[in-house]
Specification:
Distance between the termini: 22 Å
Structural class: alpha+beta
Strand content: 15-25%
Number of strands: 10
CATH architecture of the largest domain: Sandwich
Strand order of the largest sheet: 9-6-3-8-2-1-10
Radius of gyration: 18 Å
Number of domains: 2
Number of helices: 10
Shape: globular
Helix content: 25-40%
Largest sheet: 7 strands, mixed
CATH class of the largest domain: Mainly Beta
Length: about 280
């Protein structure tokens, strides 16, 4: 994998006035993702992260569930909430925060879910400036990421230790099966009690959590020249059809479109954020 940034250039301090924007780059660690690049033409998206969208040039349009379209430069979408995003310039900035250890009540006001009015998008300017500093960040911890993008470390919350143990195993091995029965046994709980406690602690069902982590595991490899059937099997999907359907239901794009739009993307994978694609199907 090429982790270099090539001819990476910092944007001008006032990208809205100049029309400049960060080059195509994606940084991935276990808890955060920062992406500046092509949006494509996605259908409905349903990401498992707290997702921040910011304009890199002109404003973008966003719609949540069956609500109206809004034009903005910055929006924060809660995890697992269906939404649509469109932009005329084909570019978008995205910051994704894994939510299981984040208490929404402790988020700073600048990261509270919602669509910001066009006249009040200062956070978008800060995030664009942060993107300009990603080149060469080969050891950017979650704390360092938060300080770069948000100005301070986000407050974390503990999970029940039994659920945390299961969640960490899925995070570390997202392409393994991790069926609910074996995870309940790992936690020392009955099957029904485990499913209830997991959803209560993490905020989403065990099945959706596992599906999101597997779909997220695709992202470190999107700039590689890989056979998509091999990628599907190595990520743990039973076949390429299931792979395509699952990825499209999350990102609103087919895997082949994601790979096509990432050919000139600089992907910076932090230590521990990805493993070689050698998992059993």
């Amino acid at each position: 994998m090429d982790h270099s940034c090539g001819q990476y250039r910092s944007p001008a301090p006032t990208p809205r006035a100049t029309g400049q924007h960060p080059d195509k780059v994606m940084l991935i660690n276990r808890d955060r993702i920062a992406y500046a690049g092509l949006l494509g033409a996605p259908k409905q998206r349903n990401l498992g992260s707290l997702t921040l969208y910011l304009s890199l040039a002109g404003p973008f349009r966003i719609r949540i569930e069956d609500g109206p379209w809004h034009t903005t430069r910055f929006a924060v979408i809660p995890p697992y909430l269906p939404h649509w995003v469109e932009t005329d310039d084909r570019l978008i900035g995205v910051v994704m925060i894994e939510p299981e250890y984040i208490d929404p009540a402790d988020l700073p006001a600048s990261l509270a879910p919602g669509i910001r009015p066009l006249a009040h998008c200062d956070m978008a300017d800060r995030l664009r400036e942060a993107f300009s500093r990603l080149c060469g960040q080969t050891h950017l911890s979650t704390r360092d990421f938060d300080e770069l993008f948000f100005g301070a470390r986000l407050v974390t919350r503990p999970l029940d230790h039994r659920i945390a143990q299961v969640a960490e195993r899925i995070r570390a091995e997202p392409c393994e099966l991790h069926d609910a029965e074996s995870s309940a046994g790992q936690a020392g709980l009955s099957f029904s009690r485990f499913l209830h406690l997991f959803a209560n602690e993490v905020g989403v069902s065990y099945r959706r959590y596992r599906a999101w982590k597997r779909a997220r595991a695709l992202l470190p490899y999107v700039a590689q020249a890989r056979n998509l059937t091999d990628v599907a099997l190595e990520l743990g999907y039973p076949d390429s059809t299931h792979f395509s359907h699952s990825i499209r239901s999350v990102y609103g794009l087919r895997p082949k479109d994601i790979f096509a739009g990432s050919r000139r993307l600089s992907v910076i994978v932090q230590p521990g954020a990805a493993r070689p694609l050698t998992c059993a199907a």
